[in-house]
Specification:
Elements (H helix, E strand, L loop, with lengths): L10 H5 L13 H10 L1 H11 L4 H10 L3 E6 L12 E7 L2 E6 L9 E3 L2 H9 L7 E3 L2 H8 L4 E4 L2 E4 H18 L9 E7 L1 H10 L6 E5 L5 E2 L5 H5 L2 E6 L21 E5 L15 H9 L5
Parallel strand pairs: 3-8, 8-9, 9-11, 11-12
Antiparallel strand pairs: 1-2, 2-3, 4-5, 6-7, 7-10
């Protein structure tokens, strides 16, 4: 695992959070539980980060914290393509957390960023890396699948729904059995695409809270869904995080945000690249200020 530099405000931290260990400074079960009691949203930000990490790494890390973890991942479709959708389900004592992974890169193949894309980004104040990873395209197919479809009393982004419903049967099978069914508290979280999937999960199953980071707009009339309407939903937005604003609000899409927006910002940052505001590691670093020394 790499050392976190510049408070997670680097291209590698942004596109490949799996290269960095979540829960920095929390090395044992007692400290983990103490931080959870006093700063639960910091723990949930790290759970959103952990959804990016491979299962072997999570098994080792969570074992040190006295936490059990199970991973869920896409299987190949009819064309042999794996879309890269992932989630983790963790539990300790009588608490469970479901966390969905967001859009991420991969080392499979890096290509040079097209000049036209760089110019568009420059025009809106975003600095892009010289190269990007082609695995991003499989996640972006979900991100850009904008048409809304009816879902449980609301209308939701078709791509976000497809990502959630692919994993949901596997997850649901574990929710009704011990030990998850015995938990008194159950939370759902995620970052970026994973945040959108977390909200849709919150429209599907009863949770104590929905807590998301860098969440794009997911649909409209979400409040007409009885579960979403009755479940506290905290939506963290870091600075000028562009992902929270990119899904269109104009007709025919007319997407809306749902939940209570909580704005945070990094007073310790040394750059002005708004793209870095989307880093889940930076979200966690901000919420961890004063918590983990």
């Amino acid at each position: 695992m790499n050392q976190i530099e510049k408070r997670g405000r680097t291209f590698d931290a942004l596109f490949n959070p799996k290269h960095y260990a979540p829960f920095p400074g929390i090395g044992d079960a007692d400290k983990f539980r103490a931080v959870w009691r006093n700063h639960p949203d910091y723990v949930l930000a790290n759970m959103a980060h952990a959804a990016y990490v491979d299962d072997d790494g999570n098994q080792v890390r969570f074992a040190k914290l006295g936490v059990a973890v199970k991973s869920y991942a896409s299987g190949p479709n009819s064309f042999g393509i794996i879309r890269g959708r992932q989630a983790i389900l963790v539990h300790w004592d009588k608490v469970a957390v479901l966390s969905f992974r967001g859009t991420e890169g991969s080392e499979q193949l890096a290509v040079r960023t097209p000049e036209f894309l760089r110019r568009v980004a420059d025009a809106v104040g975003i600095q892009l890396p010289d190269k990007f990873n082609t695995f991003l395209a499989t996640d972006i197919l979900d991100d850009l699948n904008f048409p809304q479809v009816p879902y449980k009393g609301a209308e939701v982004h078709r791509g976000f729904l497809a990502g959630t419903t692919e994993l949901w049967p596997k997850i649901e099978a574990d929710l009704s059995s011990s030990p998850i069914a015995d938990c008194a508290e159950f939370y759902v979280t995620g970052h970026s695409l994973g945040a959108a999937m977390a909200l849709i999960a919150g429209m599907t199953h009863q949770f104590n809270r929905i807590v998301t980071f860098g969440e794009p707009r997911v649909g409209r009339h979400i409040g007409k869904n009885s579960l979403a309407a009755s479940t506290p939903h905290i939506r963290y937005v870091n600075g000028r995080d562009p992902v929270t604003a990119i899904v269109p609000t104009q007709a025919p899409f007319s997407f809306e945000h749902h939940g209570e927006e909580r704005c945070i910002s990094d007073s310790k940052k040394t750059d002005d690249n708004r793209l870095f505001d989307h880093s889940i590691i930076n979200y966690a670093q901000i919420l961890g200020d004063g918590v983990i020394e």
